[in-house]
Write a structure and sequence with these properties.
Largest sheet: 8 strands, mixed
Number of strands: 12
Radius of gyration: 22 Å
Distance between the termini: 52 Å
Number of helices: 10
Mean pLDDT: 93
Order of helices and strands: EHEEEEEHHEEEHEHHHEEHHH
Strand content: 15-25%
Shape: globular
Helix content: 25-40%
Length: 341
């Protein structure tokens, strides 16, 4: 393992930035976000980012292609993708796991999204293991180990004023070789996060939910939700999007932007029909997608226990509580569901 003093992290970042763009978690006016490192950036190694790093692979707004029309003919102009080599420094195990789920969506089942694929291929991941759990974290309930980072090129762990760096791939070895003069060999005493305040038992839930699409539970559970979509925009696994055209004269562009299943317009059809007309249907869709539909299609629960939705929901809709109550509704728990009101 390579060891470096925490105060020297900017020197490592600066070395790496000679060859590629490096994104780091920075406190930006009270909200931690992954942004390109620049001289003087104050890297935050405590807690997690507010906005998940999925935005670096699946941008909130992205131009797909240009087009032009002449009479009855149209011509599509592909954009030259020039995504530079990048490094994401400080990605947490939960967000790392979320990228596996986005890979499932954008790279499998017979379709490959070229925009997402290029960004994934050109990005090295330096994961930061978790030594402390936030009050809203429950990643262990989602079978995620806060002290491991499968899929990262380099695993980093912090203990006191020391940071340990261990390469897991050839790409990771190359990155550490570039900064070998700044590091020393050794080991650090790292203890992963434990004693999570929140728990959620998902065992057997996906199968049981098939029988409860029309359960009266959904009417009760959705009452305090205000449909703002905050949960979906901050969720590292949510991937709903809309595609828009912006035409000026004979030329235009197609863009993709984030959307949300919590918005009434998301399923609104051209004739005015909406298969999810009310809050209950949209609320149900969000949770069934995460807890039933995604597991059925990809054999993974589409939640990584990061807790962002709970931390920032203005109505304090708690997904761990929803899971507990759904277990009771489906007969794989105990108690009642009166508390949802």
């Amino acid at each position: 393992m390579k060891i470096i003093n925490v105060e020297k992290i900017p020197e490592i970042i600066k070395k790496w930035q000679n060859d590629c763009e490096v994104f780091v978690p920075v406190d930006n006016e009270g909200a931690v976000d992954f942004i390109p490192w620049s001289e003087g950036s104050k890297i935050t190694l405590e807690g997690n980012s507010l906005v998940p790093p999925k935005k670096l692979f699946f941008p909130q707004t992205e131009t797909l292609y240009k087009y032009e029309t002449k009479g009855q003919s149209a011509n599509v102009i592909a954009l030259e993708e020039k995504t530079a080599q990048r490094i994401i420094f400080g990605i947490r195990p939960c967000d790392l796991k979320s990228l596996e789920m986005l890979d499932d969506v954008f790279l499998t089942k017979g379709f490959v999204d070229p925009y997402y694929k290029l960004k994934r291929e050109n990005t090295a991941l330096v994961a930061l293991l978790c030594a402390e759990a936030c009050d809203t974290c429950f990643c262990t309930s989602m079978n995620i180990d806060p002290g491991a980072a499968s899929g990262a090129d380099i695993v980093a762990c912090k203990s006191g004023e020391q940071l340990g760096l261990q390469a897991q791939t050839e790409k990771g070895e190359e990155l550490l070789n570039k900064v070998s003069q700044l590091t020393t060999e050794g080991e650090i005493d790292f203890k992963k996060a434990g004693n999570f305040k929140l728990q959620a038992d998902i065992e057997g839930l996906a199968e049981k939910l098939k029988e409860h699409f029309e359960s009266p539970y959904w009417e009760a559970a959705c009452r305090k939700c205000i449909g703002c979509g905050t949960c979906t925009y901050l969720c590292p696994t949510c991937h709903c999007f809309d595609i828009n055209s912006n035409t000026r004269g004979d030329h235009g562009i197609k863009t993709r932007c984030w959307d949300s299943c919590m918005f009434s317009e998301y399923t609104l059809m051209a004739g005015g029909h909406n298969p999810r007309p009310g809050k209950k249907e949209r609320f149900r869709q969000r949770f069934l997608h995460k807890l039933q539909y995604f597991p059925e299609r990809y054999n993974k629960t589409a939640c990584v226990g990061c807790g962002r939705c709970l931390a920032k929901c203005p109505a304090i809709v708690d997904i761990t509580r929803i899971i507990t109550e759904l277990r009771e509704v489906t007969g794989i728990g105990t108690g009642n569901v009166e508390s949802v009101s």
